[in-house]
Every structure is written in C-alpha cells, then in structure tokens.
Design brief:
By secondary structure, the chain is mainly beta. The chain has helices spanning about 1-15, 115-120; strands at about 25-30, 35, 45-50, 55-60, 70-80, 85, 95, 100, 110, 125-130, 135-140, 145-150, 155-160, 170, 180, 190-195, 200-205, 210-215, 225-230, 235-240, 250-255, 260-265, 275, 280, 290, 300-305, 310-320, 330, 335-345, 345-355, 355-365. It has a domain at about 35-180: 6 Propeller (Neuraminidase).
C-alpha cells in the first residue's frame, strides 16, 4: 500500500494544469521520519546537516487548538538521514527555539535563554561539544545568542539574545566563552540576519522607507552598508538568502496581506533588482520561501495556510528556475516545506506530508 502511495505522488507530480504531462526538471525524494521517545518534539523545524546521514534540528510542539500558551522547543539529532530523530537532553526551551551551530560533524555549540534548559534564573547559557554531541560542556552563563556561525573553533559572529530583536551583534575569539558587542553605525534593530560562514554575514534593518543591509566578510571587524528604497506598504523583511558571497535574495512581505516580492543581488548586496515574478503569496510564516543551490538554480515555495500555528495547510506549489530567476516554472507540491539547506547540488528540506511531521524532502535538479 505504501509503495502505491509513493507511485501515486510521482504520477501526480507528472501532471500539470488541464492534465497535461510535465517534464519535471528536478526529482523529489521523500523520507518519512519519526521522533523516537520524544516528549517535546511533535514537528521538525530548522535542520543543519553535517553529512548526508547526520543532522541536528529543532523539534517543537504547540498547545492544542483553543489552549493558551506558547510553544516548546528542543534540539533533535539524527544519524540515519532523517529516518529517526532523538531529543538532546536538557535542551527544552519555552516560547522560542534555542540556537545551535555546527562547524563540522564534531564541533558544535548550543545556546538557550530561559530556565527550562538551564535550571537557572535567569537562564542564559552557551554549551559546546567536541565529540559530535556525545558530551556537552557549559562554557558561559553570561551570554546567550539566538543565531551564530563559527568560522573555526575560536571565531564566530552571532546575534545576542534580546527581547523583540533588540539584541546586538556580538563576536567571540575564544570559542564562545566570551562575547563582545560590535557597534554598527545606523543599525537600530535587527530585522533579519544570515551567516554564510563565521566570517561572512548580512543584517537587514529598516529606516523609514529605506531597507538597510550590512555586510561583513571579516567576522564582524568591519561592515559595509547599502540602502534600497521601498514602498511603505512593504515593511517586513521576510528572509535573506545567499548562496555565495555575491549572489543573494531578499523576500519582502506586504503589510496588509500575504503577498511577497523577491529582490536579487549579484554583487554582495550593493545593488538589488526585482525578480520578474507574478504576484506571489506565502501564508506560512514558519516556512522558507526562497532557496538556491547555485547562482542559477533555485526554488520558491508557495503555501496557502488555513491556520499557520497548527499547520492546517491547503495548497503547496514550488517555482523552479535554472537561469538565475529570468524564467520560472510552477509545479504542484504535495508537501509542506519548513526549512531547507543546500547540500551539493541538492536542496534538503524538513517537510510535512499529512500526519508525517518529521519528513525529509530532497529536491535534486536534473
């Protein structure tokens, strides 16, 4: 029966509007995973792969419909390509996900900022592993970060924990034991932040009708600022995505509806140009929108959502480009995509299909 279901999905993806056959420019591989013995994690969110078989991610659960309260989050781990996941002990966090970052398969860092995972009040903590997560040691209780990236075992840049995005940009030169704040002129509040590595990163902010983008290529020692004028009805930076130091994309969200617009850069963020797409909608606040595996090949995920908090999803489509966004093709997608990472030529995503909330979807351009 399961084999027939898989075959049915393949057949459906081979059919477009009006029943016409489509020659898909990519293949889809679906792995249905499960969380073994998990007490917190009911769904899988962001994932970082350290190899084709091993990954770390965030598992989460929300209260049932009608109940009060925020969600709970926990770090989860797989060593069998996502078929099974297990919770990392003492990493539960309430009302927001903890942060983790792996430099390679052996060296990783974990940070949390409330009492659930630290048993301290207030709960600020950074831990480190050097043996692939078998053992973790607390290296500081003076700072917590909500995003971080290491360029080697000693150097990293991060966003310090702060209410409503008020945390500043910090850096470490001693492996995370101490963090010092980086002063960036004109930066008021971090709207969005992405690290390509521990040396290269981008921060987005708004100043009136201007979008401000700050880039570092030397682990935060210096920052370059660029500006782009935007209509006032497009105030939200939904996400920033870069595939290398030059090629990146910004997703903007309309203030009154769920329409999104894409802008692209080929010079590291100095100049941004609109991507030629018809009006798009992505209702799912938790989902990645745009991910590229090279400067030419990329995907845009579209989702209509009845209830984003409980992931009652109606329709999914994916747009595909092989020429940097000049032309796009749209295909139905039987999955709800959460978070994606480029791994070689593939795009590997945490994804849902019906009642399977720990699925892994691999998109492989032909």
């Amino acid at each position: 029966m399961r084999r027939r279901c898989v075959l049915w999905i393949v057949v459906c993806l081979s059919c477009g509007a009006f029943g016409q056959a489509l020659d898909l420019p990519f293949t889809l591989t679906w792995a249905e995973g499960k969380c073994v013995g998990c007490k917190v994690a009911a769904d899988l969110a962001g994932v970082q792969w350290v190899s084709r078989s091993e990954a770390w991610g965030i598992g989460f659960s929300f209260p049932p419909p009608g109940a009060q309260g925020a969600g709970d989050y926990v770090v989860v781990h797989t060593v069998d390509a996502g078929r099974s996941w297990r919770e990392l002990p003492n990493t539960r966090q309430h009302a927001g996900p903890p942060a983790f970052s792996f430099l390679d398969a052996s060296h990783g860092w974990f940070s949390c900022w409330n009492a659930y995972c630290t048993n301290e009040t207030p709960g600020l903590e950074v831990r480190r592993t050097t043996d692939a997560g078998k053992h973790w040691s607390v290296i500081t209780r003076a700072t917590a970060v909500v995003a971080m990236a290491f360029s080697d075992e000693r150097h990293a840049i991060a966003q310090e924990f702060g209410v409503d995005g008020t945390g500043g940009v910090v850096r470490t030169t001693d492996g995370g034991r101490t963090w010092s704040k980086i002063e960036i002129p004109h930066l008021k509040k971090i709207e969005s932040m992405i690290f390509l590595s521990g040396k290269t990163g981008w921060i987005a902010d708004r100043e009136g009708d201007d979008l401000l983008l700050f880039r570092t290529v030397n682990a935060g020692q210096s920052w370059e600022e660029s500006r782009m004028s935007l209509p006032s009805e497009w105030p939200d930076v939904r996400e920033i995505s870069f595939v290398d130091q030059n090629h990146g994309w910004i997703v903007l969200k309309h203030s009154q509806n769920d329409e999104i617009r894409l802008f692209a850069t080929s010079d590291g963020g100095r100049v941004w140009l609109p991507v030629p797409l018809h009006p798009l909608r992505n209702d799912a606040w938790w989902s990645d929108v745009v991910r590229f595996v090279s400067d030419k090949v990329g995907f845009v995920f579209l989702t209509e959502d009845d209830d984003p908090q409980f992931r009652d999803l109606k329709r999914h489509n994916v747009l595909y480009t092989a020429d940097g966004g000049a032309r796009w093709q749209e295909y139905p997608l039987p999955y709800s995509v959460y978070s994606c990472q480029a791994l070689g030529r593939d795009l590997i995503c945490s994804a849902d299909q019906k009642d399977s909330h720990f699925g892994i979807l691999t998109l492989h351009p032909r």
